Amino acid sequence: MLTKIVSDVESSTPLRARLTERLREAIASGELPPGTPLRERHLCQALGISRTSLREALRALESEGLAVSVPHKGAIVAPCGRKEAEDIYATRAVLEGLLAAQFAEKASKTARVELRHIADELAEIEPPLDGPRFFEIAGRFGATIMEGAGNRLAASALSSIYLRQRQLRAAGVGGERYMEECLRGMAEISSAIGRRDAMAAEAACHRHCANLLRIALSCLAEKSGSRSASSDARKLSAGPRNDAAEADDADRESLPAGHSDVDEIA
């Protein structure tokens, strides 16, 4: 829960770092859904922290794209829709392609052996795919390439993209189709790297991200359609409404479902 941010991490860690990490994880995991208001007064009261510490943490989250500042309203959790998905996968394609090419060209023998072992683990996975185990192995696949490529700047930027991607998954992007494409894409990338073909590895990353984007947009469209249909059904079943009631509903819908404010989330 958000109220445990300060106490659930070693006290030797600076307060801002503890706070930023906890909020970062809450956003990436969907505990704080897209659009959630990050109101300073409520967060400071709930967490027992100063506005200065909170503002420093929020600035860090904004720099990572996990929060955005809305004029006259303050910070909110960053939206996670079609435009964000397009940006996430376009940027991921460039960064992953660069790192895969650099890995193919100059990774150590140890790193290559490790990547081959992980690729073998992925090849042994059979449907139905186990989400948590699958993404744990896939995470090691990506981390091995990032480390073996030796490009810390690109790796750091890609780590931020992976956080936004987790936010997308929490928003409903995923499922069997998504994991099957991950398997196919990583196998193609691994094969190109095994041949030390940097251009083929980079091209495989671009194809993989393009396929993932198509699946992500399909998932988001399906979820949006379900919400619209549910909303229409509620309106039909409710019958005529007066303007005051509709305005009240609009106010309530501006907050995440099931929550009246930030300090009640989780």
From TrEMBL:
Keywords assigned by UniProt, alphabetized: DNA-binding, Transcription, Transcription regulation
InterPro entries: GntR_C, TF_FadR/GntR_C, Tscrpt_reg_HTH_GntR, WH-like_DNA-bd_sf, WH_DNA-bd_sf
Coiled-coil residue spans: none
PROSITE patterns: HTH_GNTR
Name of the protein in its database record: DNA-binding transcriptional regulator, GntR family
Domain HTH gntR-type: 13-80
SUPFAM superfamilies reported in the protein's UniProt record: GntR ligand-binding domain-like, Winged helix' DNA-binding domain
Region (Disordered), start-end ranges: 225-266
Source species: Afifella marina DSM 2698
Gene Ontology MF annotations: DNA binding; DNA-binding transcription factor activity
Short name of any one Pfam family annotated for the protein: GntR
